[in-house]
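Entry 14. Ran structure prediction on the chain below.
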Amino acid sequence: MRETPSKKIEFDWERGEVPEAEVRFTTSRGGGPGGQGVNTTDSRVELRWTIGSSSSLSQEQKAALRAHATENARKTILTKSDELKFVCISERSQLQNKRDCIDRLNTFLREALTPIEERIATKKTKGMKARERRTSEADKRRKAGRGKVRDWD
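Output, structure tokens:
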């Protein structure tokens, strides 16, 4: 029997997607109002992706992800077990919630791993300086009439 070497799955930079083989999904019943549909369908989807066990990212990228998750995320999405966790309950369909979770994970990864371009300092043009001077002089004239009224006669 011939063994085929396992193919390493890389992070898809063009589309910015994590391989679905590395992601775990759990479903449960969504809470809140909704009548009988809430009681019978498992529409709540929880996505978990372990950063440390990912074979598609380098160590530097994993460190950047951890730093981005702790600094910039609005909610705590990085658990103590080095997992990113996203919960989606906005749709009534489990499939739509699953797609929403995957989209949120991929958006997060693209944000965290895209390098920030450094701004190049530029000088103001002569026209821009002249326009600013004209508008500030017009503002001064307009505001000059806003003082106290001293004499009504």
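Helices lie at 36-40, 59-72, 94-113, 126-144. Will compare against last week's run tomorrow.
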